[in-house]
Amino acid sequence: MSNHVLALAGGVGGAKLALGLSRILPPDQLTIVVNTGDDDVFHGLHVSPDLDTVMYTLAGLSNREQGWGLEGETFSAMDRLEVLGGETWFRLGDSDLATHLRRTQLLRQGFTLAQATSELCARLGVAVRITPMTNAPVRTQVETEDGVLPFQEYFVHRRCEPRVRSIRFKGAGTAEPAPSFSDALDRATIIVFCPSNPFVSIDPILAIPGVRRRIENAGAARIAVTPIIGGRAVKGPVGKMLTELGHDSSSTAVATHYRGLCDIFALDEADAAAAPEIEALGMRAVVAATLMLDDASKIALARRVLDVARPDAVNAR
Amino acid sequence: MSNHVLALAGGVGGAKLALGLSRILPPDQLTIVVNTGDDDVFHGLHVSPDLDTVMYTLAGLSNREQGWGLEGETFSAMDRLEVLGGETWFRLGDSDLATHLRRTQLLRQGFTLAQATSELCARLGVAVRITPMTNAPVRTQVETEDGVLPFQEYFVHRRCEPRVRSIRFKGAGTAEPAPSFSDALDRATIIVFCPSNPFVSIDPILAIPGVRRRIENAGAARIAVTPIIGGRAVKGPVGKMLTELGHDSSSTAVATHYRGLCDIFALDEADAAAAPEIEALGMRAVVAATLMLDDASKIALARRVLDVARPDAVNAR
Asked: Any residues with CB less than 8 A from the CB of A282 and at least 6 apart, and which?
């Protein structure tokens, strides 16, 4: 049986593991499905932050320091836009603007978001299939103590400061998985939950009708990698969200969130002591070096994930 | 009677004289009406090249070498867009993009083009009123030996190479002058035809219903400044267009084009010998230093134009 790995990813953390996977798997054995609940329209341009983070990372173009955006980026357009009275809290770099200009143009020409993503990836030399979770507009909204905020308003403009009460995915109820996502769900022998935020990166993907059930019933080996190390998020608001939503900020809480969806949970070496808690959830706990600071550690973690999920398949490569 | 100067302008040449006028007149005594037949949509953004040239020039932001665009501009977005397979023959600079993003957003919000222009000018500290000729979409189309080309396709993409047969202004027939233009037509004591291309900068303005008649019947002193020196255009395709349309490439041909619209024609010192030909057209010929290489020569020409048009008004200042 031919191996196919489906990775579910959000932004920075997901992109790192996706990069590792892309370095050890042939392009036709990997599909990366990306959250689009973070998408929004700025200045009339369709911006897909997570798709771009994954795409730029796999193209070797991303800013290594911050994990998103382009290396060597400039911000002349935003600086000028500020003078002109435009809204600039979502700072789009000059080169990055080209992606949004081109994507918006392709969408206006009738491309689906998945087709536009394929076109952009092809131009950037990314051979692995990166697909949005859906071609339909789904918008993550964060219900906070200050009211319901569109995701980027919460995440960028308000710096995740307002306390979160709940999260919803507007439009998800009538969305369908993108065809390339659906196809990968059928073919996957391994499903990887990347170390992304479970609430705002993975849950939007699971909110697409049919996706949760198909993963629950999948014959694939299903493995999640913790986005929490030593009780703290490697990046982003997942720790804060966990506590605001009534959980501990821990790997165990994330594993609990994935119960029924995953067979294996990879927790960090720093959290090895929590392995029994995770096993008690009915998952196999695997201790791994999950902090990905350089390409070598991304590749090592990807290899470990594949190794653990399907030793036979990995050995057959 | 209070003095009011209405200047009709296209891009670079018009902007130069407009700058000179703006330096010697109080802001409430000058209206600059600008051709918008060159406007087009690139990547979903409304681009108004002549408005921007005049605006940037009066804001002191324009690239002095080329006369259009912004000083110190970068082109990261276009460079990246080229990689991404977008059309980039109309190269929009990174800072310049902010103008088009903001204008497009304002238009979507319901601003007229004149209102959007006022807002942008206010943000850039330009006190003089700069107004588009109309708020309606008018598009200059050039009928060439290679077929009918949208203006920017002819001007930028094809570098004015195809022979011109005729020029039309799509949408002009149902357009109305922008309110601030119409108001200035009522109030003008001096009307200045800037040294812009008569066929593709001034004619579109004259093509707005009622404008030509109102200028023909105006009580204002009407003076045109030649865009031709020594038989050649200072900038742009006016010389080539004159010959392709069956005229001489000369100041006299331009003056002939303005017959009935102008009382005074300012020709360059290099063409002083043509003064009798121009007088024979029923205009007063004035010989001036029309080449504007620096701000001092722009101001000097502006002063000369006002002086010649209305010596009484100028002396009263």
From this structure: A259
Contacts of residue B146, Cβ cutoff 8 Å, sequence gap at least 6: B158, B162
Q: What are phi and psi of A164, to 5 degrees?
A: -90, 135
Residue A315 has pLDDT above 70, yes or no: no
Task: At B102, list the tokens.
Answer: 């903001």
Q: Answer yes or no: do A101 and B76 touch at CB < 8 A.
A: no
Q: How distant is the Cα of A61 from the closest Cα of chain B, in angstroms?
A: 11
CB contact under 8 A, A97 and B98: no
For chains A and B, CB pairs below 8 A equal 106
What's the domain count of chain B? 1
Position A227 in a domain: yes
- Which tokens belong to B51? 């408005």
Are B226 and B288 in contact by the 8 Å Cβ rule? The answer is no
Q: Which residues 15-54 of chain A have a CB within 8 Å of chain B?
A: 43-45
Interface contact flag, A85 B44, Cβ < 8 Å: no
Type of residue found at A47: V
Residues of chain B short of pLDDT 50, as ranges, are: 313-317
3-state secondary structure chain B: CCCCEEEEECCHHHHHHHHHHHHHCCHHHEEEEECCCCCEEECCEEECHHHHHHHHHHCCCECCCCCCCECCCCCHHHHHHHHCCCCCCCCCCHHHHHHHHHHHHHHHCCCCHHHHHHHHHHHCCCCCEEEECECCCCEEEEEECCEEEEHHHHHHHCCCCCCEEEEEEECHHHCCECHHHHHHHHHCCEEEECCCCHHHHHHHHHCCCCHHHHHHCCCCEEEEECCEECCEECCCCHHHHHHHCCCCCCHHHHHHHCCCCCCEEEEEHHHHHHHHHHHHCCCEEEEECCCCCCHHHHHHHHHHHHHHHCHHHHHHC
Amino acid code (one letter) for A193: F
Do the Cβ atoms of A105 and B43 come within 8 Å? yes
Model pLDDT for residues B55-79, shown as the tens digit of each residue: 999 999 999 888 789 999 999 999 9
The pTM of the full predicted model, rounded to 2 decimals, is: 0.92
Tell me whether residue A175 is in a domain.
Answer: yes
Q: Which domain holds residue B217?
A: 5-39+126-142+170-316
Q: What is the pLDDT of residue B77?
A: 98
Residue B67: predicted pLDDT: 79
Instruction: Give the distance from CA B221 to its chain's centroid.
Output: 19
The domain that holds B203 is classified in CATH as 3.40.50.10680
Amino acid (1-letter code) at residue A147? G
Residues of A within 8 A of B98 (CB-CB) are 76-81, 83-84, 86
Contact call for B77 and A83, based on CB within 8 A: no
pLDDT of A310 reads 81
Predicted ipTM of the assembly: 0.91
* Interface membership of B311 toward A (CB under 8 Å): no
Tokens of B312: 């009484």
